[in-house]
């Protein structure tokens, strides 16, 4: 199923080809600058910046969505664990002021020191992190979308 509707992620208009998952209150998109293979984002459909602004129903749906998505990306990207991360507010590393969960497949030894993953998460504007092409992101979203036939956008 193709998701026709685009959404905003903070100030960024997200093309439908980047979106692979939709629930009542959340959507899943592939990452422009992933820090590991399969690093995706689960975003609140309502464009609020802070976690505390979500209703209980939105929190529940967002995390249930992250659980479904985590199961799929861990398997598809040959992970053995997941990092599930919320950077809630600018001083916690949030660069896009719109509530989102990072879901990142993890493998043994992928970061030498585990907490260095947070350094990499915070290097989003670093020149080493080249944005991916629209085609590469669309191909990944197409593959992931196959796992979510019940998508609702
Ligand atoms: W934060 O620093 O707000 O916790 O995370 C922002 C995330 O959003 C980063 O992983 C970054 O790569 C990603 N990102 C920024 N702009 C886009 C975009 N247009 N499409 C997809 N991902 C994006």
Explain what this protein looks like in three dimensions:
It is an enzyme of class 3 (hydrolase). Residues 6-113 form the HIT domain. One of its GO terms (molecular function) is bis(5'-adenosyl)-triphosphatase activity. Its cofactor is Mn(2+). The protein is an alpha+beta fold. It has a domain at 29-135: HIT family, subunit A (2-Layer Sandwich). It has helices spanning 56-76, 116-121, 134-145; strands spanning 7-9, 12-14, 19-22, 26-30, 40-44, 81-85, 100-106. The strands form 2 sheets. Strands 3-4-5-7-6 form a 5-stranded antiparallel sheet. The chain has a two-stranded antiparallel ribbon with strand order 1-2. Strand 1 (7-9) and strand 2 (12-14) form a beta hairpin. Bound molecules: adenosine monotungstate. Adenosine monotungstate binds at residues 9, 12, 14, 29, 31-33, 41, 87, 93-96, 124.
Topology, element by element:
Blueprint: E1 7-9, E2 12-14, E3 19-22, E4 26-30, E5 40-44, H1 56-76, E6 81-85, E7 100-106, H2 116-121, H3 134-145
Bound molecules: adenosine monotungstate.
The site of adenosine monotungstate (AMW) has 14 residues, from strand 2.
Pfam families: HIT
Site (Important for induction of apoptosis): 118
Organism: Basidiobolus meristosporus CBS 931.73
Short description:
The protein has 153 residues and is α+β, with helices and mostly antiparallel strands. It is 25% helix and 21% strand. A five-stranded antiparallel beta sheet has the order 3-4-5-7-6.
